[in-house]
Amino acid sequence: MKGRTLILGGGIVGVAAFISLVRHRAATSIEIVNPGPIGLGRAFATTENSLLSNTSVDTLSILADDKDDFLNYLHGRGVPASPGSCVPRFYVSQYARDRYEQYLALARQAGIKYRHWRGTAIQVSKAGHGVYQVLLDTGEMVETDNVMMCCGFAKPIVPAYVEAHVGEKGIFATPYPEGALLDALPTLARVLVLGTRLSAIDSALLLCRQGHSVVMASRAGELPAVRTQLLRGLSGRVDKQQFAALDFTSPHLRRQLLRLICRSARVMRDLPLSRQVSRASNVEVRLRQEIQIAKRSENNWQNIIIELLEMADAALVAAGPETQKRALDYCWAMVQRYLFSFPLVNAEALLAFIESGKLKIVSGAPKALTAKAEGWSVSWPDGADEQIFDAVVCATGFHRPLFNVRPNALDIIMDTAQGVETPRVTSDLRVIFQKSETPENIWLLGVSSYLRSALVSIVYQGAVQADVIARSLSRVDVNELSESLQ
Predict the structure, then answer these.
(1) How far apart, in Å, do the first and last CA atoms of the chain sit?
(2) Could you give the dihedral angle defined by the CA atoms of residues 275, 280, 286 and 290, in that order, rounded to the nearest 10 degrees?
(3) pLDDT per residue as tens digits for the range 321-369
(4) Disulfide: which of 49, 152, 170, 343 matches 86 by Cβ 3.0-4.6 Å?
(5) b/e map of 83-95 (b: 16 or more CB within 10 Å)?
(6) Which band of pLDDT confidence, cut at 50, 70 and 90, is reported for residue 265?
């Protein structure tokens, strides 16, 4: 069903969608709605050389059938990288921008019309059979035949004890853009970073390298696991029979999954999982031990992550939203620690700052913040001494976009305070309007696909989704969407 296609969002998955539409000649016109330049999404729009991508080069191609496209781009620029390398993030945004411009030229050569709308989509409504109108926050209305929603993340997650102070001096709802954060800090500042996951680690490393002293705090006070690479194409390691026996509705799922990982992680080397991970309770000791395990290449679990991720995502999409939510609730702590593991080079830098006294990691969220003349006073729930900080940085992640469904419309909500009625989403990622059983020509991709595909977290996954949809649109019947999305 070739026709007009509108892409909502111009980050890296939006670029992947654009490229797929051009490659498959799947649209007569392509329009992108994005408030800023195309290809400069929040995740990779940085100029800091020290901020590395948390996933390997191998997982960052935006050409679904060429996993080496990003690697070849880097080699073309003289960057010494391998498939397992974690490179500075700005290379990813420059790559996305380069490929966007390349395929924009190809689109024009092929006679495909194109337009970039500067704004943010807030509603998609049905305007007739197979026709949609998309309302932008600028008040403009765009008509189209197909909608690919690549909205990315919404507002930063701000803890309740910080929310009342957002906008005040020294309080940052997000560490991005990092240049604005660094410019706002005094020399040798004392900074509290809220969070201990990937964005918090990036923030701490950036701040410590600038000479600031940092305390990282989260309820668990845990860091992600340490790895050296995250590669695609390492198949045949996960025991398919044992995977098929997993009960995603069982409260014992985590134990079943651990047994599967134990067995699968021994495929490459006969090394028990107990020797591939650290069981230390102290965060610094655990970090030090996991660095040594990674340096000895004994963390075989990292080589089954992508295969297991793809198998689990396909199974959970097929199982439906309720089973998916229950399974993730049972296993989320393990998913966070290992799926969102971080590179060895960053782990070593983090440990060096801990050992030098520049960085401290604590468990427990602050109870309250109080503005004082000398800075922000933080009180802790365990009765620990109050501490004074020059700045407090929320690195606790971002909300996912919310979608409110109505009989003939879908609202895109970035203000998470609003209540919503979540739409049903088919296994091929199409939205169904309220009081209807017919899937619309509206697809959710990348982060936006979480309503049906909650384990999509890596760039190449969004690129694969986009490619499958574009292939479908290049055919006569959109309902023949390939089962490979599942």
Answers:
(1) 21
(2) 0
(3) 899 989 999 988 888 888 889 999 999 999 999 999 999 999 988 888 8
(4) 343
(5) bbbbbbbbbbbbb
(6) confident
Structural domains of the chain, with CATH: 4-155+398-485 (3.50.50.60), 160-224+343-394 (3.50.50.60), 226-340 (no CATH)
What is the distance between the alpha carbons of residues 114 and 54, in angstroms, rounded to a whole number? 33
Q: Which residues pair with 31 in a beta bridge?
A: 6, 115
Q: Which two tokens stand for residue 146?
A: 């197909």
483 contacts: CB under 8 Å, gap ≥ 6: none
Only one residue has tokens 């939203």, namely: 321
Cβ–Cβ under 8 Å, residues 145 and 4? yes
432 phi and psi angles, rounded to 5 deg:
-115, 125
Classify burial at 410, counting beta carbons within 10 Å of its beta carbon; exposed 0-12, middle 13-18, buried 19 or more. buried
Q: Which residues pair with 393 in a beta bridge?
A: 172, 193
What is the pairing mode between strands 226-227 and 121-128? unpaired
Q: If we measure between CA atoms, which residue out of 261, 295, 311, 234 comes closest to residue 59? A: 234
237 or 87: which carries more pLDDT confidence?
A: 87
The residue type found at 239 is D
